[in-house]
């Protein structure tokens, strides 16, 4: 799956990009018709420790899913967002099977 990583106002290191690619490749098990995906990383300018935001946007034929998570680390945020995305993709797949 093609994954585009965007960082807002900072640079992302290769280790994080590799982690994101590996984690999102696992989503193919749940729904194999993903067109492409975008991951946006943002830093929230607050004094709270939970200031790292990962937004996951996945395009499938006829629809687009967006999941946004805020955590202490980008890795944790990506993990939680990917878990939520798995559930959405499974629901989508079941819905399509029910209609066909």
TrEMBL record:
It holds the Pfam family Ribosomal_S30AE. NCBIfam families: yfiA. This is Ribosome-associated translation inhibitor RaiA. It comes from the Bacteria. Gene3D superfamilies: Ribosome hibernation promotion factor-like. Coiled coil: none annotated. It comes from Flavobacterium rakeshii. InterPro entries: RHF-like (IPR036567), RHF/RaiA (IPR003489).
């Amino acid at each position: 799956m093609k994954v585009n990583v965007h960082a807002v106002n900072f640079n992302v290191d290769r280790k994080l990009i590799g982690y994101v690619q590996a984690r999102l490749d696992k989503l193919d098990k749940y729904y194999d018709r993903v067109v492409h995906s975008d991951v946006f990383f943002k830093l929230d300018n607050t004094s709270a420790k939970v200031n790292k935001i990962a937004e996951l946007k996945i395009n499938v034929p006829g629809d687009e899913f967006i999941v946004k998570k805020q955590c202490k680390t980008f890795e944790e945020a990506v993990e939680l967002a990917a878990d939520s995305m798995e559930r959405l993709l499974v629901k989508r797949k079941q819905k399509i099977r029910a209609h066909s």
